[in-house]
Predict the structure.
Amino acid sequence: MAGTWGRFNVVALALGFAFLYLPIVLLVIYSFNESRLVTVWAGFSTKWYVAMLNNRGLMDAAWVTARVAFLSATVATVLGTMAAVALTRYTRFRGRLLFSGIVFAPLVMPEVITGLSLLLLFVAINFDRGFATVTIAHITFSMCFVAVVVQSRLITFDRSLEEAALDLGATPVKAFFQVTLPVILPAVIAGWMLAFTLSLDDLVIASFTSGPGATTLPMKIYSQVRLGVTPEINAVSTVLIAIVAVGVVVASLANKRQDVLRQREAGGE
Amino acid sequence: MASLGSTRRTFAPWADPTAKPYIRFENVTKRFGDFTAVDDLSLTIYEREFFALLGASGCGKTTLLRMLGGFEQPTSGRIFLDGQDMKGIPPYRRPVNMMFQSYALFPHMTVEANIAFGLKQDGMPKPQIAERVARMLKLVKLEPFAKRKPHQLSGGQRQRVALARSLAKRPKVLLLDEPLGALDKKLREETQFELMDLQYELGLTFVVVTHDQEEAMTMADRIAIMDKGKVLQVATPAEVYEAPSCRFVADFVGSINTFEGSVTRAGSAACIRDRSGAEFRVADAGAAAAGDTVWLAVRPEKLRVSRERPADAENALDGEVWDIAYLGDMTVYNVKLDDGRIVKASTINSIRRLEDALTWHDRAWVSFSADAGVVLTR
């Protein structure tokens, strides 16, 4: 079984990975290219990273993106966690189905539609588009991802922990902050990471809801590429990939560690 | 110490009409949708009592405990604690603490912090908290484990942390939900006595929920046996065992032989004819009148097994030895009567006798005296 199937598996795996990651690997390699031509290798150099750092427009866009991502991830985490708590705790309130529908709809909603509807809303209420609108739009769509991550943790959360806190004299609010939140914190952090990277990547929704002076990095990259690819863009993209990769790895490690701890607890009986 | 022991033996406030109940359930009903978990239940528990709620799962015992803790509100009826109506009082304002079945230890806190949690909520000054935590750790013999997290402890140690945490606030009443359920048999037996000593030393009222009748019998001053949301009997372990109120209780606590029959002579020195036609002489038929259908219930250890019918036997049945369970300290014989009924009899192996023991398919007599059984009317 190991012989033929093993080889087949190895090839399938290699092809799969190549399909997924070859473009990214190429992008990373060419970000270290000496030549200005994107497709011709002319030796190793980090000069495009230097150029990137000196590119005012690019750096401004990066700074906008970082602020939007940080702010929107933080607010989305608070709202998403609250939504998840409401959905797992209060299994029978009026309009629960509608509420969960509203929370989770953006997961499957085409981004173009989310972006367009937000744009229409901002125009209708005469909200000047810019930093605030992009942030609000990002909160809207990343909140549901946080809710999903946190909810999946809350489902396995032992309610009697919270009851024990109440029993020992903690008010419901104190019980949440001193017991529930610390226990589900890894999931909350994972949710924040996810929201942060989603916001970092987003082009479509940002394009719809952004205004002058609030160009995000993906928007900037996209507009520059239309004028011609420079290795500078490759360099920026590589940095972006690195940040996202670190975020994803940290989030999954946090969750994994939590799982191990929980299993050890259950198995220690 | 000896005098304390004797006071304990005479502890029976329920028999004293002037004693004031400490906890009172008054016609309490709890419904979850269509399901009635607790059905019009009234119950009184006295101060310093070790009270056990015993029943199979789903009988409503845990719901009753949770209502006392404030985690569930009764659908109707009232609960009084020390004269105060508990209606609408949330768990964090009740002078009771609960030890949860899962222990519910806070996984992100050390043993110390777990025990201190309740004291912190009360705003107790730090030095006092430290002192109380140290005392609690000593009480449950966990001093070396103060800095450990719950996942670094064994099951028995966790159980003791949960106990220390629920006792730290010195509650008037401690509620224990299957406190020994997760421990293995040996540890469970040790812990039973520890719990009893603790309860007595601290002078607390304990209300414990359990499905284990042996545990309830060992620990409790009184036991309430529950089924389908109702209390069938509240009595001391001995009363529950020797004078069960109905067939359910008789059957639930220990094992028992029941003979269905009708009363042919009522009152004391009564007679009961069972459906095979055998006449049983019964010392006291209680309230059953002649002609009533009753059940004569006899515990296995009150039956004697022998090859010959004993001359002095007031009641005797003969059959065939069908099964023998040798348990070391005692032997349980299942004797199959000629009409197919199985009668269970147990014998204490007080002398070493390896020869001439009854064996499979031997003919044997089971006999019992007129006062060995109890007559049940329902």
User: Anything to note?
Assistant: Residues 255-376 of chain B form a domain with the OB fold (Dihydrolipoamide Acetyltransferase, E2P) fold (CATH 2.40.50.140). The two ends of chain B are 44 Å apart (CA to CA).
